[in-house]
């Protein structure tokens, strides 16, 4: 007899979980019901700007016809959850339906953070997360005009690229001292900065948006930064980080982490039996992860648990990543911040590489690469060990 797995959310991680369960479930134990809040099935958010560069929704979708037509998969588009009764193992949908489950996984993701500055709710203000968001930005774009992006991290640079594709001149505002402050140090960020400004993107670091001024018809006239700079623009895109979508936690009696997110143990289990949380909505042992790869690790762990397979608890998940932002490659691996660490730094005009070494043992801790990232795969196996003798050659190959 089939058991029912209900997954709330059909983003990249929720979809990966469903795929993992189907792949492992050779005997057909589980029927999967997915409550997808959006009207589109799961798609590649990482490559979302491609939607403005000629790629169709179908090109970016992760849920193919075989998945959507699978006899044990029921994807309900435009359907969200509002609460439930864990003691009865039921979840309630926004349209009033009550679904019984044997296992419930919350994969609700995150929501964009919009700073509450004057004018943030004007019609020309947007966030950057969904197909609908990009459709709205496309409709509001004015080729040849300046466009403002709030946030100089991964999402902000993607949004800036989207405005470029729409023929606008992007301005990026970042409160930190340089672009991508959560991932890069100043040296790597400088390589990125030189590249993006060379593409015509204006970068304003160390300041914030202070307010947005409207015309009399409430369309946007300009945005003012905290340093006094005024950008004449018809639109503002907020891409200044995200917050976990953890609003179902109180409705289900689940504990939340101090900084937000549904609190889980090392197995992604919440404080209620038979309920797991995965991806950006989860706080794995109190820590939130904003990248897809850690979410995929969580999804794999949950799938193995559901199929009765042995699995180890997840500790600190490796957040190593390689990305291409507006044409420049950046990568991080291992630990990029360590108190007292020694650093081996090699820099050229368009390339930067930094390796962190343990202050006592000299073992390789991790590193940051910009402009040339091919050496990441060669260096990663040395983490925790003495670095190779040809470290410089590996970091900046000729």
UniProtKB/TrEMBL annotation:
The keyword Cell cycle does not apply. InterPro entries: FAD/NAD-bd_sf, FAD/NAD-binding_dom, NasD-like. It comes from the Bacteria. It comes from Streptomyces roseochromogenus subsp. oscitans DS 12.976. This is FAD/NAD(P)-binding domain-containing protein. Keywords: Heme, Iron, Iron-sulfur, Metal-binding, Oxidoreductase. Residues 5-288 form the FAD/NAD(P)-binding domain. Its cofactor is siroheme. It holds the Pfam family Pyr_redox_2. The lineage of its organism: Bacteria, Bacillati, Actinomycetota, Actinomycetes, Kitasatosporales. GO terms for molecular function: iron-sulfur cluster binding; metal ion binding; oxidoreductase activity. PANTHER family: NITRITE REDUCTASE (NADH) LARGE SUBUNIT (PTHR43809:SF1). Pathway: Nitrogen metabolism; nitrate reduction (assimilation).
